[in-house]
Amino acid sequence: MAQFIIKTLVSAIIIGIVSTLARKYPNLGGLIASLPLTSLLAFIWLYQETQSIQSVSELSIAIFWMILPTLPFFLILPYLLKKYPFYLAFGISVISLMIFYKVFMDVLKYFKIL
User: Fold this and answer.
1) Is the pLDDT of residue 40 over 80?
2) Tens-digit pLDDT profile for residues 5-14
3) How far is residue 54's CA from residue 51's CA, in Å, rounded to a whole number?
């Protein structure tokens, strides 16, 4: 249980730092947010818990493939924000993200990649 609390606190602190920096320095906030901090932490936590190189390797490959369908979200959101209120633009962007994930997962399954 202590390990879970530590993981949660570290993750929350990182998110807090990014959102705080982004208010004053959007580019710096974007740079930090674009770093694979979540992935790096996940690798560390997974290895610490399992001592399995194979698990870390599989997670790394899965993360690589799952990043690709997220990229359009980061183009759709700012485009929609110019035309619609935040929550509507955000909602449409998230729905499009889910659609991209579904289509991409079907493509990966079709080609037996994952």
Assistant:
1) yes
2) 988 898 888 8
3) 9
pLDDT bucket at 31, cuts 50 / 70 / 90: confident
Q: What is the pTM of this model?
A: 0.71
Give the per-residue SS3 of the chain. Answer: CHHHHHHHHHHHHHHHHHHHHHHHCHHHHHHHHHCCHHHHHHHHHHHHHHCCHHHHHHHHHHHHHHHHHHCCHHHHHHHHHCCCCHHHHHHHHHHHHHHHHHHHHHHHHHCCCC
- Nearest in space to 66 (alpha carbons), one of 27, 24, 103, 40: 103
Where residue 25 falls (left for φ over 0; alpha for ψ -120 to 50; beta otherwise) is beta
Token reading at 73: 């979200």
CA distances from 75 to 8, 57, 72, 105 (A): 29, 29, 5, 20
Residues 6+ apart with CB under 8 A from 30: 22
